[in-house]
Structure formats: structure tokens, C-alpha cells
Amino acid sequence: MFADRYSRRQAIFTACLVFCIGALFQCAAQTFTQLFIGRAVGGVGVGALSALSPLYMAEISPPEVRGSLMALEQFAIVLGVVVGFWLGFFTRDIPSSASWRIPLAAQLMPGIILLVGCAFLPASPRLLVLHGRYEEAKRSLAMLRLRTVEEAEEDPLIQLELLEMRVEATMIHRTLGTAENFHKSSSVFDELKTWKRLFGEKYRDRTMVGVLMMVFQQWVGINALLYYGPTLVRSIGFTGDTTVTLLVSGGIGIVQFIACLPAIVFIDKWGRKPLLRGGSAVMAFSHFAIAVLISLFSEDWASHSIAAWAAVGCIYLFTAAYGISLGPIGWVLPSEVFPSSMRSKGVALSTASNWINNFLVGLVTPVTIDYSPSGTFMMFAVAAFFAYLWSTYSVPETANVSLEEVDKMFRSSVGREESALKKQIEENVGLSDLVRRLGVEG
User: What residues make up the domain containing 30?
Assistant: First the structure.
């Protein structure tokens, strides 16, 4: 609500400030309570940034690179995970509290960079148009496209982009029954009515795709491996040298980091469904194989070192499959299944599903691993198997398809209704005339 009412930039600045305060609490903590408070405060900031940052990037980026930036978000997340793990690895033997304060304090560096950088971030032209502030939107877009305001006046591509933003903003206002001053006049009740639409008949199937995408993204076990890697690695026989256990755990992040690269390149060429189905099948096989190996050899891993390393190989195979499928597609698919009028709220709800399930997996994994290591991996295998079934029978292929085609997949008329409304608005704001004029001149 804050980001919609005022500014993406101000919302990002506020969330970043909250995160930095939390990071300070963590690295300066003298008691467990202080550390807990710091983690909680920092978590609020991270949670807000995880929704605000991709939204802002999508709104300011040129259309031709918008999809790639969304896929790059997962790449950036994994890069942070890798850096964080190995920083902790190399400081673990410092004989003082600095061994854990240094990694926690390192969070402040990107936080402070973003905090200071917010002063130089241009306002979102899309949000300015949504608020009816067209001249400010023109200046912001000119800055983003490296043009002066005078050049923007003569640049047909910038004029085209601005008119497209006006069309989208008008569609949102008409679909939701709001006005251009909605950010000042709307109440919490009005916001709740808008959110309620996500669970209505028109949008329910799309909402389930966004929410379940994040459910499966978490319950296949990737963050369980990242959070409790050493514990899970010990469950497959590496109970001796702590350094070896940590190195094997650290390899999980590196494999995921590498696997993100082909996903960025092929996510549009191969499509979402083939990657989701193939990745889910490989993940289910990997977890099932690990569960079987633990059941057969957990009593005497020392005599079956080949089986232990085979289990490590299965963990890395799972991680690679996740990195090319559920990892990046989890951030792309929710932005594609919702029509423009509900996209920001649909993506926000999907992000909330991600964090809720992230919390639940982190809560459940230590309990299940103590009770039954093989059962824990079998639980992840079952989740991956259901992800395969879901991606096969319920997920539409959204790569390179129009809104009408997505609409047919959901057996809904909302896309067609918005398409007709969009054509009318394009005529009203002059976008159709500009396109025809550019076509004649070209």
C-alpha cells in the first residue's frame, strides 16, 4: 500500500533502512534476545525488498530486457547465498565473537549501498502515470532512457512508451473502479476489496498458480539444504571432518549459482512447462535416491563411502535441477498469469506465499531430520513429485503467448474483456494514431 500510494523509491528506502537497523542489531548483539530482534527486524526489511525490488525493476526497464531482469533476480539471490556461506566458512575459526559478527556485519555493505543509492534512483514513470503526473513521468523516463526532456519531446519511442503506460494506467483505473487520485483518497476497506478480487471466480485459478508456484519452490527442499546443509550432509554419512562437511554443503550454493545461467538463456526458448516438468522429475528422483541410500546404509556409512558420495552427487543433481527450473521460474510465472490490472497484487501475494512456506520449511526440517533423515528426503521427493503433476496438468505455458491465449488456458473471459477495453483506450489516448504514424514513416 505504501509503495502504491507514494513512491517505489521511498518504499525501497524505508525497507532498506529497516533492514540496516536489523543488521546493526545482529552484529552488535550481546544476548540471544537482541540477536532474535535483529533477525526479526531485518527480516521485515528483506521481505519488503523482495517484493519491491522486482516490481521497481520491471517498471523502469525497457520492455526488451524486462523478462531477463526478472530471471536475473534468482541469479542475484543465489550469488548472495554463496557469498554469505563462504564468508562464514572463512571466518569460522576466528577465536572470538568476530567469527559470527563479521558475516552479520557484512550485510550492511549492500544495505548501505542501496540506502545511499536510493537518493539517486529515478521515480517509477509507470507509478507517476498511474497517479496522473504525466510531466514528471516524462522527465523520469527521459532520465532512464538517457535523454534530455527536450529530446524526449521529439523521441517517438519515448512518446510511445509513455502512451502505453497511460493505456495501462487507465485500464487499471477502469477495471478496479478507481480514480487517478486513488493514492490519496482510497481507504483500507477499498484496498481489501481490491485484494478480494484475487480470490473471485475470474482470478482464482491464476492466484492458485502464483501461490502454488511458491509452495513447491520451497517444499522441494532447496532452503532446507541451504539452511541446514551441514546437518543434512551429516545424515548421509559425513560425520567426521567438519571441514569436509562444510565444503560439501558450500558446493550446494555454487551448483545452484551455475545452474541459473542456462535458465536465463533458455527460459524463453524452451518454455516454462518443459523446464518445470523436467526439473521436478529430476528433483523427485534425486531425493528418492537419497532416501533409499540412507535407509540402506545409514547404519554403517564408514563401510559404504561410495554410497555416501553417491548421495552427495544426488544432492548436487537436485540443486542443479532446481536452479534451472523452480528457482528462476518461480519469479517469472506469477508476473505472467495475471492480467495487467491485478498483476502487482498477484505478484505480491505470490511473494508472501514464498516467505510463509520458507518459514514453515525452516521450522519443520530440524524436527524431521532428527526423527527420520530418510523420511525428510522422502518428504521432499513427494513434494517434487506433486510439483511434476501440478506443472503437467495445471500450469499454462506462458512463454511467447498472448493474453488471449493465456485467457483460454484458464477458461476465463477476463483477458478478452481487457483486450477490448485496451483497444478502446488506445484510441482515446492517441496511441493507435502514433503507431499508425510511425508505421507510415517507417
Answer: 1-121
DSSP 8-state symbol, 300: -
Q: Which sign does the torsion angle of CA 30, 35, 37, 38 carry?
A: positive
Phi and psi based region of residue 403 (left: phi greater than 0; alpha: psi -120 to 50; beta: remaining): alpha
Element (DSSP H or E) covering residue 312: helix 305-324
Q: Do 364 and 333 share a structural domain? A: yes
Residue that wins the pLDDT comparison between 205 and 190? 205
What are the angstrom distances between the C-alpha of 21 and each of 3, 37, 313? Answer: 20, 10, 40
Cα angle value 309/315/318 (rounded, 5°): 145
Same-domain status, 209 and 347: yes
pLDDT digits (tens, 9 = 90+) for 65-95: 665 677 777 788 888 888 888 888 888 888 8
Residue 150 sits in the same domain as residue 274: no
Taking every pair of C-alpha atoms in the chain, what is the biggest distance, in angstroms?
77
* Residue 403 pLDDT greater than 50, yes or no: no
- For the chain, the domain total comes to 3
Same domain, 30 and 150: no
- What gap in Å lies between CA 256 and CA 330, rounded to an integer? 14
Q: Report the candidate in 272, 214, 280 with the shortest Cα–Cα distance to residue 397.
A: 272
**Alpha-carbon gap, residue 361 to 72, rounded angstroms:** 24
Categorize the per-residue pLDDT at 282 as very low, low, confident or very high, splitting at 50, 70 and 90. very high
Q: What average pLDDT does the chain have?
A: 81
pLDDT at 3: 62
d(CA 130, CA 325): 34
Q: What percent of the chain has pLDDT over 90?
A: 20
DSSP character string of 405-442: HHHHHTT-SHHHHHHHHHHHHHHHHTHHHHHHHHHHH-
CA 316, CA 109: separation in Å to the nearest integer? 30
Q: How confident is the model at residue 381 (pLDDT cuts 50, 70, 90)?
A: very high
pLDDT tens, position by position, 353-373: 998 999 999 899 989 988 888
Does the CA dihedral 181-61-73-272 come out positive or negative? positive
CATH number of the domain where residue 295 is located: 1.20.1250.20
Q: Are residues 260 and 354 in the same domain?
A: yes
Give me the helices (H) in 61-124, please.
Answer: 63-91, 98-106, 108-117
